[in-house]
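[Meeting: bench + compute handoff]

Bench side (C.D.) handed over the final construct sequence. Compute side (W.E.) agreed to return the predicted structure before the next meeting so the bench team could plan truncations. Sequence as handed over:
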Amino acid sequence: MTGETELVEVQRTAARIAAKSDILDIRMFSSTFELKDIPGDEALSWDLEVTPTADYSSGDEYFVITLYFLVKIVAMAADKKETADSVADIAFQFRSLYSLDLSEEEHPVEEAELNAYARSVAMLTLYPYAREYVHQVTARLGLPPLLMNLFTLPYPTERKPREAQSAR
């Protein structure tokens, strides 16, 4: 799991790209889902894996972010001690096209900036589409429509040293 400090650094690294880009298009490129079992009265739980990638060629005025999503839905055992039974898997990918407005004087885009952008800004942009899609698919599979949590990033805060706080 990514720690809060690392995610704050990711946001800082992505800031220049966020300030110099605009989204042009969002499309679903692939989707597969499978209902493996019809659950009884068990509570359902889910797990989400997201893999972001960024594609950019030096000097281009655009870049593409791809987010691969995998949602695994399981039925929880009544005593919650047994292994959960797999109910459904939903795998899909969204791609988004962004324009990039850098002047000739600015230093070239770095891979770390684009990867950070994919993990932060692009996630915030595309995640609502993923939530809606998973909600639709689970309903069509005859499961209770899954409403995934909001995607959030930590809010960076500056902490003052204890000595400075107590000196007031």
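W.E. noted at the follow-up: The chain has a mean pLDDT of 86. C.D. will use this when planning the next construct.
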